[in-house]
Write a structure and sequence with these properties.
Layout lengths: L12 H22 L5 H31 L3 H22 L5 H7 L3 H13 L5 H18 L5 H4 L5 H19 L8 H25 L8 H29 L1 H6 L4 H13 L5 H22 L2
Helix pairs in contact: 1-4, 1-10, 1-12, 2-3, 2-9, 2-10, 3-8, 3-9, 4-12, 5-8, 6-13, 9-10
């Protein structure tokens, strides 16, 4: 059963998770705008440095109170932050250098499938047949996107480097979402701060590797603007709301709303970045929307 939170204002989980999807779609646009204007590992470091700095004064009192609960789970929580926050975003921003923002957002739709499979095999989570159909439709949409409308190219493993990197990032965040199931019962600000500090620590390592490889690019005005967006909205606001959404309706159902990311992302990519929306993108989006509708209806019947 999903955990319910009794304190705080009553907010519909659909509103919470749809907002998350919109902000994460913006993250793909920011990543694309940042490409060539700030190097991806430096962007990841900047993101988590300032996110941690902003969170610290608000979250520190809660962390002190929750420390007896956090301390024995500190390694576990640190791994969550390194995988779900820093590593996912580092690969995400690297992928944006090689593929389109539309592709990135549609490919994120594979996350629910990763969560579904992992929850089934690890926790024997019950599923309805409509969920299976919904996940299958989502997978078709992702396949159409990664293959640019030619699914036969997948058989030859003929993938754009950015699309391949994005699918790796999906595995990282899907694993993080499943692991949230066993997170300790602490204040949400405590959780975000601990994960952010862990993300900052590993981001320093990633940025150092990038520097020694001679790949570091300092931000210009456009790169700095993209970094500011990633600090405030995807890092703090969206991650906090996502944890809240998982608490409200559980990881399987919450992760389905990531399927709204490509819808918002496609619109933003066309309007802001000027990318071209192809017919296979439209077909993929139709599969994604159909998938989330069927899977959500199936989840209600369990």
């Amino acid at each position: 059963m999903p955990q319910q939170q009794t304190s705080g204002p009553r907010v519909h989980p659909y509103a919470v998770l749809t907002t998350v999807a919109l902000l994460w779609a913006g993250n793909a646009i920011a990543g694309k705008l940042a490409a060539g204007h700030i190097s991806p590992m430096l962007l990841t470091l900047v993101r988590w440095f300032f996110a941690t700095l902003v969170l610290l004064p608000f979250a520190a009192p809660h962390l002190r109170r929750d420390w007896p609960v956090v301390r024995p789970r500190l390694v576990y929580l640190s791994i969550l932050g390194m995988v779900g926050f820093a590593s996912f975003n580092a690969i995400f921003y690297l992928a944006a250098n090689y593929t389109t923002a539309i592709n990135i957002t549609i490919e994120q739709s594979a996350m629910p499938l990763v969560v579904f499979v992992a929850n089934f095999f690890l926790f024997r989570t019950r599923v309805a047949w409509l969920q299976i159909v919904g996940f299958a439709l989502t997978l078709v949409g992702v396949a159409l996107t990664t293959s640019r409308g030619d699914i036969t190219s997948l058989l030859a493993l003929d993938l754009n480097r950015g699309d391949a990197l994005m699918m790796l990032a999906v595995l990282f965040y899907g694993g993080y979402t499943v692991a949230l199931r066993t997170k300790p019962q602490v204040h949400w600000l405590t959780m975000i701060l601990v994960l952010s500090v862990a993300s900052l620590a590993i981001s320093v390592v990633y940025a150092a590797i990038e520097f020694f490889l001679g790949q570091t690019r300092l931000p210009d005005l456009q790169g700095a603007g993209a970094a500011v967006y990633t600090v405030i909205f995807p890092s703090i606001v969206a991650q906090s709301l996502y944890i809240r959404g998982v608490e409200m309706i559980g990881p399987n159902r919450a992760n389905l709303f990531i399927n709204f990311v490509p819808v918002f992302g496609a619109l933003l990519a066309v309007l802001i970045v000027g990318e071209e929306l192809h017919l296979y993108h439209v077909a993929a989006l139709a599969c994604v929307l159909g998938g989330i509708t069927l899977a959500e209806r199936g989840a209600r019947r369990i």
